[in-house]
Every structure is written in structure tokens, then in C-alpha cells.
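Thread: quick sanity check before group meeting

JM: Hey all, I'm pulling together slides for Thursday and realized we never actually wrote out the predicted structure for the chain we discussed last week. Dropping the sequence here so it's in one place. If anyone has concerns about the input, flag it before I start.
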Amino acid sequence: MPKHPVVTEDGIAELVDAFYARIREDAVLGPVFENKIAPEAWPKHLATMKRFWSSVMLASGAYSGNPVGVHRGVPGLERAMFAHWLTLFGQTAADLFEPLPAADFMAKAERIAFSLQLAIFHRLGAPPDGLTLPHRQVG
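JM (edit): ok, ran it. Output follows.
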């Protein structure tokens, strides 16, 4: 199947479905998601994630929510899991999209992961140890 040359709603839907299928099978992240999201709640979660990524990538305004609050309420979520999440997300984006849109997804995902880590794990007055910074491209 050819890769998506640009980001579209259909491409976002395919990415979200494929990525969360990987997440659910993953030995590290699967149990965290399964403990938080009941089997019957997965369709709603996937629809929410499609709206979220549509808003992020296409500025559609389809998503309104509180990602920080949601992630703060996830039992067993650890800072190190964000790097693993990014690896799986990057692999999925690269599988489905041409290099430029895949890189655009990753740039946004890295900023989101950075922001979530800061909001969830950083304590005022403490050094930001263990914080995964987004990669910056030069050029």
C-alpha cells in the first residue's frame, strides 16, 4: 500500500488505529492502557485521539479536552514510558506516511510528550532531571 504523501483526516484515522493496535500489544505500554481504558471504551478513545490529532496536525479544532488532566490520572504511567511511546508512534508514522509528513507528526508528538512530562512529573523548585527534550532539527 502506498504511503500517505500529506496529512489528511483519513491518514490520521489510519495512524491512530494502527498506533493504538501496537500500543495494546506492547509489553510496556499495553498494560497501562488496558488498566485505564475498558475494552468497551476503546472506540470512544480512538475517536477522541482522531479528533486530537486532527486538531494538532490540521488545526481543525475538532478536539477539546484536558490531556494533562487525563494523563495525570493514569495509574502506572512513568516518565520513561514517553520515550517508548514516541518510538512506537514514530515507527507507525514512518510506516504510513512519506518522510515529510511523518517528520511533521514526530515533531508535534515530541513537543506534546515534552509538555506532558513537564506538567505531570516536574515539581516547582526541583531540577528537571529525566526530562526528555524534543529533538531540534538544524537547517
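AS: nice. The chain is about 65% helix and 0% strand. The mean pLDDT is 89.
JM: adding both to the slides.
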